[in-house]
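Dear colleagues,

As part of the handover before I leave the project, I'm documenting each prediction I ran so the next person doesn't have to rerun anything. This entry is a single chain, and its sequence is reproduced below.
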Amino acid sequence: MRKLIGLSLLVGLLSQSAFAIDHNNLDGGRPLRFDDAYSIAYGERAIEFGFGSSFLRRKSNLWDAKVEFKYGFAKNRDIGIAFEPRYGGGDNHFDAGDVELSYFEHVQREIDNAPALGYKIDIALPTGRGSEGVKGRFRGIVTKTVNQYDKLHLNLDVNVNGSRSSTERDVSFGAIVGYSKPLGYPTRFDQTLVAEFAVQQSDVRGEGWKGSVGLGLRQQMGVRSVFDIGVQSDVFSSRGGSKVPLRFVVGYSIGF
């Protein structure tokens, strides 16, 4: 009888874990820009809410939000749809923003010295005010464990701009080096510290590259919920590109 009760409890715990959101599974924007190489679980659904405030020089603050629905439709693969409304940034008008579609695939798990690999494709439809042309991004993702529990992440981006504007680049590039560290592990495992350094080529012709740094924290709130908070700052910009001196981000993710 005791064995039967123990087995039932184990099955219950495993079924809960299978549909839990992991605070150590990192998604771009929650709270920093980089992704890790792992998809959400097969059959899992998640809604991720995010809110950000960018403090700009010589312009009013930009307030933006992101609501994304993700679904693990197959093993090691997920799809998503996101809405990104915003307000402010100079003209103080509300903008419903573009609708973004995404596809993510975890290609290889980490084995011995070989890192985990994945990629993500994002397609932004021109539904926002003043948006022109479909925009796309291909992101290659590498994740490698270091120091037993910590992880390094490398994201390489190719951005394709479908706008016909002569002032915008057709293709631009970017790279992010991310770092994640579980706090308190192995005695407890409910917080992950994240940090990043990113460089991004401007999509405006004549402007150069922009570099930024970020620091954030993901906190497990429950079996199916994670809270995140982060701060970012642009540290350099070449050839007259604009910079965001300070940006705050908070978010909340729920799995079901």
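The chain has one domain: 2-255. The first helix runs from residue 2 to 18.

All the best with the project,
I.
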